[in-house]
Amino acid sequence: MAKRNAPSTSWVQEQYTKSLFFHAKLHEWGLVEVAHAIEEFDGSTVEWDLPLLSVSEKAWNCVIHRGIAPVRVFAHPAVLRTIPRATTYYRMLAMVSQKSMKSVQLDTEPYESDLRQLEESTAYALARHLNAIISRLIETEAEIDAREFDLWRGMAAGAQAQGAWQNQKGTQYETIIQQLIISHLWATGRVREQTSQHLLLDDGREILFGSDPNIRLLKEHDLQTAVEIKGGIDPAGAYERLGAAIKTLHTCKNKFPECFTILLLRHETLTSGLEERLSQHQQDITRWFTIEAILEDAQTQNEFIQLFLHEQGEFDKGEW
User: Is the preceding peptide bond at 213 cis, omega within 30 degrees of 0?
Assistant: First the structure.
C-alpha cells in the first residue's frame, strides 16, 4: 500500500484560518440573529398584496401548502424596515450579490452594514425585485423543501465570505484574532454591548478594534493593553512590518508606561535576525506570540487572552 504523505502544515493552517474567517463573518453580518428575528415576526399582521409585492401565485401556494410561514420566504416592506439587516436575509435567499444589486440600482450595502432604516419606497422596490427572483426559484421546484431556503442563503453567504477573504488577504488574521477575543468574552458572559468596532465589558472596560494599534483595551481613558497583528509572510517586508509595529507599541508605552504591549506575527517570518531585533525591543514589547501558536495551541491561546485582559499572574519574560 502506498504511503500517504502527511498534510502540508501551511495548507492545514490556511484551511483553519479560512474557516475561522468565514465563521467570524457569519457573526459579523448577524445572519443567525436576523433569521431568528424574521422567524419570530408575525406575518399575519401585514397585508400580502401578491401582485404589488411581485410574489407569484404559484410560488405563494407552494410555500403555503408546505406550511411554511410566508415571511420566511418573501420580503415584505414592513419587515425590511423594522428588522435590521433583513435586507441581507432576503438578498441571500435570492442568491444575488451586493455588487449585482448595485448594478440594478438597488444598492443594499448601506442597509446591511450601518443598519440604516429604509425609506418606504426603497423597501417596496427591494421587496418586489427580490420576491420576483425568489418566486422564480420556487417555481423551478416540483416540491419545495423548507431546508432549501437555509441552503440558498448559505450559498450566497459563502460566496460573499469568499469575496471578503480574497479582498482581505493579509489582513484576515486581524479578524481571526478579534473573533477569538470576542468569542471568549461572550462565552464567559463579559460583554455588555457590542458594535462592529467596539466592545463594552461588564466591568466598564472597553475594547476597540482598528489600527495603530489593531486592538486596544481601555479602562476609562487609560490604555491597558495594545495589540499589533502582522499577518504577512513575505520575508522581504518582514523588517518593515516589524519596524512599524515596534513604532506603534513604543508610542503606546511612552504614553501609558503600565500598559501591556503584545505583538503577533507569522511563524514564517521568524528569522534569527528578526528574533534578535525583537529581543532588542523588550522595553517596547511586553510579550510576542506567533499567530500559528495562538490558533493551534489552546494553552498559548489562553495565555494570550489572559494577558490581554490583565487576568494573568506573573508571566515569564524569559520566554523571549
Answer: yes
Residues 6+ apart with CB under 8 A from 51: none
Set of cell numbers at residue 112: 446591511
Q: What is the largest CA-CA distance in the chain?
A: 73
What is the set of domains in the chain, with CATH numbers?
Answer: 29-166 (no CATH), 172-319 (3.40.91.10)
Q: How does DSSP classify residue 268?
A: G
Regarding beta strands 198-201 and 206-209, do their DSSP bridges make them parallel or antiparallel, or are they unpaired? antiparallel
Grid cell 495562538 — which residue?
294
Report how far residue 138's alpha carbon sits from residue 148's, in angstroms, rounded to the nearest whole number: 10
CA atoms of 310 and 320, how far apart (whole Å): 19
Query: What is the reported pTM?
Result: 0.64
Q: What is the pLDDT along the chain (320 residues), one digit of tens a residue?
A: 444 444 555 567 667 778 888 888 888 888 999 999 999 999 999 999 999 999 999 999 999 999 999 999 999 999 999 998 999 999 999 999 999 999 999 999 889 876 778 999 999 999 999 999 999 999 998 788 889 999 999 999 999 988 887 766 557 788 888 888 988 998 899 999 888 788 999 999 999 998 889 999 999 989 999 999 987 766 666 778 888 889 999 999 999 999 999 999 888 777 778 888 888 888 999 999 998 889 888 899 999 999 999 886 544 443 44
CB 226 within 8 A of CB 249: yes
| Extended beta strands in the chain, E state | 191-195, 198-201, 206-209, 215-219, 222-230, 260-265, 287-290
Amino acid sitting at position 268: E
Neighbours of 275 (CB within 10 A): 12
CA torsion, points 167, 180, 266, 4, in degrees to nearest 10? -90
Radius of gyration of the chain (CA): 24
Say which residues have a Cβ less than 8 Å from residue 253's Cβ, sequence separation at least 6: 259, 261, 283, 284
Mapped onto helix, strand or coil, the DSSP state of residue 208 is strand
Cell of 138: 420556487
